[in-house]
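Run log, item B.
One chain of 366 residues. Sequence copied directly from the ordering sheet:
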Amino acid sequence: MKRALLSTMILSSLLVLAGERRTAAQDDSRILVNVVLVQLNIAVTDRKGNYISGLKPEDFQITEDKIPQKIATFEEGNEPTRRFVASGPEGKMVEQAVQQPAVDGSTSSETAHATSAAVPPVSTGPIPTGANVFILFDTSNYMYRGFVFAQDAIADFVRSLEGVSRVALYSYSRDLSRGVPLTSDRPSVLRGVRSTVAGDDAALYNCLLMTVKDAAQLTGRKAIVVFSNGPDNASLVPPEDVAELAQSTGTIIYMISTRDAQAEPISTAVFERMSKATGGKAYFAKSWKDEKDAFASIREDLAHLYSISYYPQPNPNRGWRTITVKLVGENAQKYRIRTRDGYRVLKQAQIASAAMPSASAESATK
């Protein structure tokens, strides 16, 4: 009897293990796809370059590889984020009440339209508001002559930022220095500006790639403002790789270039392409006043962006996806739109393990 009982137990165990193996095999054969929330930062201007405010979600039409998309969140400038969900048999998008953190740390439900009353409020975690801004300051040997003036321009820019959640100050020469990580403490950022010192050759694209990787971990609006006084003469990565990663992670790049960079046509063309690809702008400053005007223009741009996100509809394309944003109705022809024109589908591991330009550059950032 003991032998029979032992044989029965062993047989049962083998059957259980076999079932687990079959389940594991079945799981291995399944394709798991992560749902990615695509974030678009959109500038809308008239033909004179004046920003257009007051547009509504229904004024925007978004397609990805010609597949219509449904807006999940909508934010204008520094206004609170509005979230939308599909409701009813027709899947009409209605605004959903969200749990937003109050000043005292508690949560409160807010919604703008009575049409969403039938949709129960849900806790969605932190709602991204404002923008996270990384300032990447050229402290290479190109900057010796105008170093103090550049520090003044950056300091004025930091003081003037409104509706921005956090600011980080990075600097670069041959290596990247994360002088002040993202913080809402503006005085600490200003102290970081004044503590920067000029240094070695310029590895702009190496260091910009690492800055994009840092920004890629964030949700909501994120922008990198590059202040460069010269061409790149020490990087190992091409600028096209940097631009593509910024596009694919929804990071805007603004470039402010001064006289030394302007003297090299290749750098001028690269700066323009990179900023345009990410939905940003490139500025070429010939004087101290031009530098201040460029920073003021970036501040205005950040304050007037429409931030729209969506969950991509089923799409077999696992490579580059083309995004098209249009205005519908009577505004379709009157206004101009600036945003990124697509992204490449990336896994989180690809963002985290993007090729590093050199061990020395990485070690200097710790």
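Observations after the first pass:
- The mean pLDDT is 78.
- The longest strand covers residues 38-45.
Flagged for discussion on Thursday.
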